[in-house]
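Summary of Year 1 activities. Much of the first year was spent building the evaluation harness for sequence design. The harness presents a backbone, in tokenized form, and records the residue chosen at every position. We chose the following record to illustrate the format because it has been used consistently in internal testing since the harness was completed.
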């Protein structure tokens, strides 16, 4: 069995420029969220499927997976001009971390 990383951000995994860019992307994505769906193991964020948003979400994941290696990410762009869904999920404890880290505290457990 492989050792699991703790459920905690490791911001030292990013250099200063990467941290700055990650924060910028987090703010841009956060401002664009159209819906948040609670899942059994995390959350799904509905975002506009504009080309820029798709590339921003993918870039955000490249940074976030370095500092939060315990998270699972899934991106789905629906057909026929449908929305972009970004899922943040994981093992026990990850959902509460995501709720706190991304400010989903108003969503009931």
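For this record, the design step produced the sequence shown next.
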């Amino acid at each position: 069995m492989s050792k699991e990383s703790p459920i905690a951000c490791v911001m030292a995994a990013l250099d200063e420029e990467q941290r700055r860019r990650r924060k910028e992307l987090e703010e841009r994505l956060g401002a664009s969220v159209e819906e948040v769906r609670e899942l059994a193991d995390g959350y799904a964020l509905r975002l506009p499927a504009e080309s820029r948003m798709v590339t921003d979400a993918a870039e955000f994941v490249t940074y976030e997976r370095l500092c939060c290696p315990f998270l699972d990410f899934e991106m789905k762009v629906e057909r026929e001009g449908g929305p972009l869904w970004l899922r943040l999920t994981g093992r026990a404890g990850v959902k509460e971390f995501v709720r706190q880290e991304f400010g989903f505290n108003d969503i009931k457990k």
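The helical segments are 16-32, 51-67, 94-101. Quantitative recovery figures across the full test set are reported in Table 2.
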